[in-house]
Predict the 3D structure of the following.
Amino acid sequence: MKSSSDQAGITLADLAARVGAVVEGDSSIRIIGVAPIQSAGSGDISFVANPSYAKHIAATKASALVLDEATPCDRLPVLRHKSPYLTFGRIIDILHPLTPSVAPGIHEQAVVEPGCAINETAGIGPLCTIGSGSSIGKNSQLVSSVTVGRNVTIGEDCLIHPGVRILDGTRIGNRVIIQAGAVLGSDGFGFAESDTGLKKIQQIGWVEIDDDVEIGANTTIDRGAMAATRIGRGTKIDNLVQIAHNVQIGEHCIIVSQVGISGSTRIGNGVILAGQVGLVGHIEVGDGVMVGAKSGVRKSVPAGKKLFGYPARDIMEAKRIEAAQSRLPELLKRVRKLEQGDPD
């Protein structure tokens, strides 16, 4: 994709200086775009972070590549960095700087109730509604059709995409990104049995989102029953994730699509939950825990553990069990032969 900011491009030397990389080869060539290594052309820069893509280096038509410090390449100029993926991300930011999705000010088709405090640099797009007592900080953008309830706090430099619902009392920090269709502050799932059926227990808590969090499309985060459901600083949450009431998530966690976290679970810092992981309620997951895809976590996990499987076990134990299960058909045949008196 060609640069949206400067069709004349930028020299490889300038790129290297701005991203902290080392140039090998002609540093005067100009880069005007980014592209996958298989489809890149003249003027494009691409990268290899996964070794399986190194086979494309010999044939790519890119003008330059971003590589780690060891991957060989003697046919193209190269930017060397220990983290090619991170470096390439920074190059994208340079060649494709973000522009505001909505201009500062309040669109004429937005509805803002009395008693709101909206910074003059914030942008409120068409069909947004903002409840009384809410505040929105500097440079934050509500793109369109965003619902903000009463007494909501949204910090500075936030980007809230179309169709997001931020319900009463939610507190959002700075530089938070919320993708389309997410719901923050919906009722937690609380019911008690009674003589006449299930009695709904009113959820009177709220949601707190710390700085630099990203929340994926159609993710739901329930309000606490009586206090806060919290998401810690720097945590990244994928699409279609369900986070129940009273959950506490630490800093810099990665939570991948279709994860479900049951109520009152506490998750430490730097935890990684792969796709479709499920956690029962009222457990604690320690710092740095990694849980493989489709695993079911049914009890508390000490810090640093790697788990996999359903139910989730230590990853090495889970692999041994999986290997043993693959031999079951063969073992069953042998058992039948022994039962029939055939030792062979």
